[in-house]
Amino acid sequence: MNMAKAYLEAVGGLSGDIMLGALVDAGLPLEALTEMIEALGLSDEVRVSAHPLSKCGISATKVDVDRVEQHHHHHHGHEPAHGRSAAELIAVVEVGELDGRVKERSVQIIRRLAEAEAKIHDTTPEEVHFHELGGLDTIVDVVGTVEGLRTLGITELHVAPLPIGHGWINCAHGRLPVPAPATAALLRGVPTVAVDVEGETVTPTGAALVAELAVGFGRPQRFVSGAIGYGAGNANFDPVPNVARLTLEDVAAQPQSDEATTVTLIEANIDDMRGELVPDAIDAALRAGALDCWAAPIIMKKGRPALLLSAIAENGQAEGVADVLLRETTTLGVRMVQMQRRCLARRQVAVETAFGTISVKLGYQDGLVVTASPEYADCRRAADEHGVPLKAAYAAAIAAAQSEIGPA
């Protein structure tokens, strides 16, 4: 999967459903959200649908989260009338069959929401209740956004300053000023801009998503625009379109820069951990954003055999990777040092072979291709489907890539 950036502009505002709409409009299959609901064990309770919606002349996608009509109400007699608590929502996510990093980030977002609401309403985060659809739409909005970004290969979300309107809104707790107190608390440290719109432009869920997921504010540097999606909300803020625009980076459009960049090396010497736990630690580090992670045998003092566990991460991801290594291994500490990293300029192409379409990464130096590397997963699938050796699929991909090879 390509690792790419995305740029989010909340033109008229941001909410969970607007974010889902932008993801679907940018290319996320609606089926991915349906599968996510199934992975959470909620397919008997909620469903998602999408339809086009125009806002001030801009064609966008509106995603709706609806309760499934229950013909046997006694099956859900436990559903509290006042909505599910934050603790109950987190429990649903934690037992779901989700990617580990998706689960971790989704729980963190729900916790942010709960902590902000609890502080405003003088209760505890665990006891905060989410009212819409019993809180299930909150889960779908949050987990759907995190899973959607992962599915689209987005590893960096950059966000433009969020537009903040004025006036009052009516909610379950009464009449509240705009932005709602919980939203205001979640927007601490997030750049905003005032807009002449009466009403709630940014919801607590929208604010929590940005507070947790944004790695930077403003358009990212060296950004090549690719697919663009518009997500719409129900409210009308004429003449301001109530949409958000999500622009995905087109990593295949041109070779990435071969300039040297600064990365962080995170390492730990480990001599007291079972060997079968090492692959899981490596996988966890990669899910946390590590560019690479590996283990090598070493000899420590007094001749003790051990492993050197190493990971490389971009500076913005280094702390998260370090946290994972500390949590997933037996080490009491990690070493972190910055170093220079230089990579070939790269471009990914899809080539047609006798065994189907296979992606190939091309590496450039001084404008000339010096290496071509077929994607293992594509070659494995092609080999299995056609009953040929893996090396035959590799050779076919390399041969087909020859027609793509030219100046960068």
Summarize the helices and strands and which ones pair or pack.
Layout: E1 4-9, H1 16-25, H2 30-39, E2 46-55, E3 58-67, E4 84-85, H3 86-95, H4 100-121, E5 129-130, H5 136-151, E6 154-159, E7 162-166, E8 168-171, E9 174-177, H6 181-186, E10 192-198, H7 204-213, E11 214-217, E12 225-232, E13 243-249, E14 261-270, H8 278-287, E15 292-299, E16 305-314, H9 318-328, E17 335-341, E18 345-353, E19 356-365, E20 368-374, H10 376-386, H11 390-401
Parallel strand pairs: 1-6, 6-11, 7-10
Antiparallel strand pairs: 1-13, 2-3, 4-5, 8-9, 12-13, 14-16, 14-17, 15-16, 18-19, 19-20
Helix pairs in contact: 1-5, 2-5, 3-4, 4-5, 4-7, 8-9, 10-11
Taking all Cα atoms into account, the compactness measure Rg is 24 Å
Beta percentage is 25-35%
Label the overall shape. globular
Structural class: alpha+beta
Query: Can you summarize the main beta sheet?
Result: 5 strands, mixed
Number of strands: 20
Global mean pLDDT: 88
Ranges where pLDDT stays below 50 over 5 or more residues in a row are 71-81
* N-to-C CA distance: 22 Å
Query: Helical amount among residues, as a percent range?
Result: 25-40%
Summed up, the helix count is 11
Major sheet: arrangement of strands: 11-6-1-13-12
Could you say how many structural domains there are in total? Answer: 3
